[in-house]
Amino acid sequence: MADTENHDTDDGALDRILASGEARAFSVFGRAQALHGDATDSNSDGEQLEREERRALRRVGGLSTELDDVTEVEYRQLRLENVVLIGVYPQGSVDEAENSLRELSALAETAGAVVLDGLLQRRPHPDPSTYLWRGKADELRDIVRTLNADTVIADTELAPSQRRALEDVVKVKVIDRTAVILDIFSQHAQSREGKAQVELAQLEYLLPRLRGWGESMSRQAGGQVGGAGAGMGSRGPGETKIELDRRRIHTRMARLRKQIKGFAPAREAKRANRSRFAVPSVAIVGYTNAGKSSLLNRVTQAGVLVENALFATLDSTTRRTRTEDGREFTFSDTVGFVRNLPHQLVEAFRSTLEEVSYADLVVHVVDAAHPDPASQITTVHDVIGDVGARDIPEIIVFNKADLIDDDQRLLLRGLAPNAVFASARTGDGIPELLKEIERMLPHPPVDVALLVPYDRGDIISMLHRRGEVTNIDYRDDGTYVEASVSEEIAAQVTEFAVST
Question: Which of 117, 221, 256, 258 has the smallest CB count inside 10 Å?
């Protein structure tokens, strides 16, 4: 691909990201159906491949989402990109590599692309120059031409030099997994904070990947530089276009960080309000598309958007609900996770993810029908650890239990012996989950015995709403109540305290 085309492309991407307040383009996403494919290995001898097989790219079947009916393109109201997926895996990890590529297929489909093919190469490590080794890069170029593909997506984060070198070989646009995830986040963000967080992550990703018109766009010094030993002809025009772009990005990133920091006081005020009124908080975490929003809707009737697509909801939602014994607690949905979640997003969404670290209990939702639930659990635990929430009590919920059989239940029980099996769609297992939440929620620390006059019914109501009433007796001189409450509430009702 010509350097001028590359610069025009990057300029367009930069202008789109930096443009604030402009209306976003309408797009409709395909359904992410690539997560539940079967990964099989027909080689009964493990990795003992024949010479021709060792030299060949491994094709991953079942990834194509090409439309059979062209009228579906009109329904989606956009021209879908035709993409080919590529990946490199070391010896002995072919199943994991295929699952990862299927997940990348679902990501690409959610972003608005048609997956034509998926290819894997077995090598100890990717080629530092072109990701795929040079001969396989040439084969990929032929496959791209044959399929008339527009884009190649690598199942990792490419270095800027790898991306450019591979584009020079295959002659079409090359992007990586991180770019696809950032694109999905950009399309799905709705709130001001979510949009600011995504834009910050995009700019952090774009900054080291700016490219110019070769030497004519490299950094050049203006003024008398000959004295530095550079000689005649070295006096450049001063700040060039690429330096201007970098400066604009740094300026915009500083504004975004200040803007995101400005959202913190409101969030901290809400958190302090919940703490003051001793309202326990439960955070829902889990892999993207595992059913977190569906579970929140089933328990609290929150009405959050539910769609069979990755990262359908990015903005956290908090709702109040009650346990069977009358205690109030908050249920908070959080952004979903995915393997190899870009570090830019983890940093940009740290303020949102910190809600997990302040929770009293974590409900970890796992897709029971996923082909590799163990990797989902590991990925979520890694991100939870990054935000300092590893020590918070956890309930693992295997959602979509209506889609699995008894053998699969037995295998999942081995992964998490104390897990709850539930289905947000049918409601099965939800009562058991609520009982487990009730059991694990922290109990108020102060026990009080009160005799409340009958004209102070507000005290009785507050004890039921914000405490845990264990005994109540209606006497001639008032209502006798035994309850467990927070220290703040205990201080408010000391005038009614009696000895037991």
Answer: 258
How far is 392 from 332, CA to CA, in rounded Å?
A: 15
- Strands, sheet with 361-367, edge to edge from the N-terminal-most edge strand: 317-322, 328-333, 281-286, 361-367, 394-399, 420-421
What pLDDT, on a 0 to 100 scale, did the predictor assign at position 309?
63
Question: Tell me, what's the pLDDT at 40?
Answer: 41
Here the tokens at position 147 are: 């399929």
Mean pLDDT of the chain: 77
484: Cβ contacts below 8 Å, ≥ 6 apart: 443, 444, 445, 446, 447, 448, 467, 468, 470
Per-residue confidence at 462, pLDDT binned at 50, 70, 90?
A: confident
Cα dist from 174 to 217, 251, 415, whole Å: 22, 28, 38
Q: Are 466 and 277 in contact (CB under 8 A)?
A: yes
pLDDT of 77-132, one tens digit each?
455 789 999 999 887 778 888 888 998 998 898 888 899 999 999 888 898 989 98
31 and 365 in contact (C-beta within 8 Å)?
no
pLDDT of residue 251: 93
Polymer length of the chain: 500
Distance separating alpha carbons of residues 408 and 375, to the nearest angstrom:
16
Instruction: Pick the more confident residue, 324 or 233.
Output: 324
Q: Which residues contact 136 (CB under 8 A, 6 or more apart)?
A: 57, 121
Q: Report residue 355 as tokens.
A: 């809600």
Closest CA to 344 of 268, 262, 256: 256
Closest CA to 287 of 335, 333, 334, 337: 337
Query: Per-residue pLDDT tens for 155-178?
Result: 988 988 899 999 999 999 999 998
Q: How many CB atoms lie within 10 A of CB 13?
A: 15
pLDDT tens-digit readout, 392-422: 899 999 999 999 998 999 999 998 999 999 9
8 Å CB contact between 10 and 211 = yes
Q: Which residues of 434-471 are buried (b: 16+ CB within 10 A; e: fewer)?
A: bebbeebbeebeeebebebeeebeebbebbbebbbbee
Residue with tokens 């609290």: 300
